[in-house]
Amino acid sequence: MIKVGIIGATGYAGEELVRILLQHKEVEICWYGSRSYVNQPYADIFRNLFEVVTDTCLDDNIEELCKKVDVVFTATPQGYCAGILTEEVLCNTKVIDLSADFRIKDVKVYEEWYKLEHKSPQFIEEAVYGLSEINREQVKGARLVANPGCYTTCSILTLYPLVKEGLIDAQSIIVDAKSGTTGAGRGAKVPNLFCEVNENMKAYGVLTHRHTPEIEEQLGYAAGEEIRLIFTPHLVPMNRGILVTAYANLKQPVTYEQVKAVYDKYYQKEKFVRVLGKDVVPETRYVQGSNYVDVGFKLDERTNRIVAMGALDNVVKGAAGQAVQNMNLLFGFAEDEGLGQLPMCF
Questions:
Q1: Is pLDDT above 80 for 229?
Q2: Buried residues in 225-249 as b, exposed as e (16+ CB within 10 A)
């Protein structure tokens, strides 16, 4: 058994971490950290865990916590983890950060897009970008894992084989993405009120969304060149889910069989990435509540372009599920331990 602490346990990603880890046979949750709900019973905040969790919420004292647990999850806003991380913390425990603080290697890019001063840039270089399907071996030896974002996980896994194998012009990529409202967090914000979201759909962060440089950086590693792409997110009136539709120019004409073989080369042995059959498109309902990512594609011979599509649950594979997958790699557990929840469908 390993001991786990969660800072930010009362956010959407934090609660999903709790739900998943309670079903993990190798884990004991020792610390439910929440600055907003100190000394309140955790099950009073999330009544789905009534008579399941009897602990109360503690504060976010990382110095004390790191000496009591084997791994700390920080499901916190941008800037928090960077502000508390020290060498002493990393010497005592492993850290899996669900924010963007350590995802981007260029601190100037991070500060430009997030409008924050990075408080611990000395740890950026050693942080491993925790997209398990791509960086599995690096994750295993890490002290600090930068857990990917939901939009980025879906966008990267949808496009990675095409970029890695050089089938597309990486500079022509356009990513159109849709997210459920949990992606905006649990804080009270007027744009996320029911009457603002229901029966509505809107683009936001057009040309300025903070996940853009993260997608560019990771796909750039695959392409072996710096990439500039267009990423446009949209908020849709559903609780969970990310749907990505990405467009790119093909470098040369290809057949369905050739592209399918490329996707299978990278994902055929992956537990959580499902490459759909011909003419089948991903849907958020078929990954809801699970750690699966469904990907598919269509070829447009008329324009010599490809339409690549992906779907995932933004609080599971897009946050908490991916974090547990990384934890499993860190401690040598089966990669799918605790992540056997099947999609809920409706």
A1: yes
A2: eebebebbbebbebebbbbbbbbbe
Count the domains in the chain.
2
Active site residues: 150
* 108 belongs to a structural domain: yes
Residues spanned by the domain of 40: 2-126
- Do residue 112 and residue 198 come from a single domain? no
CA distances (Å), 144 to each of 46, 73, 139, 286, in order? 29, 10, 9, 32
Count, residues in the chain: 346
* The pair of three-digit structure tokens given for residue 270, joined into one six-digit string: 């992956």
Confidence (pTM): 0.96
The DSSP result for 248-286, as a single string, is EEBSS---HHHHHHHHHHHHTT-SSEEE--TT----GGG
| Cα of 219 vs its chain's centroid, Å | 15
User: Does 189 have pLDDT greater than 90?
Assistant: no
Please report whether residue 143 resides in a domain. Answer: no
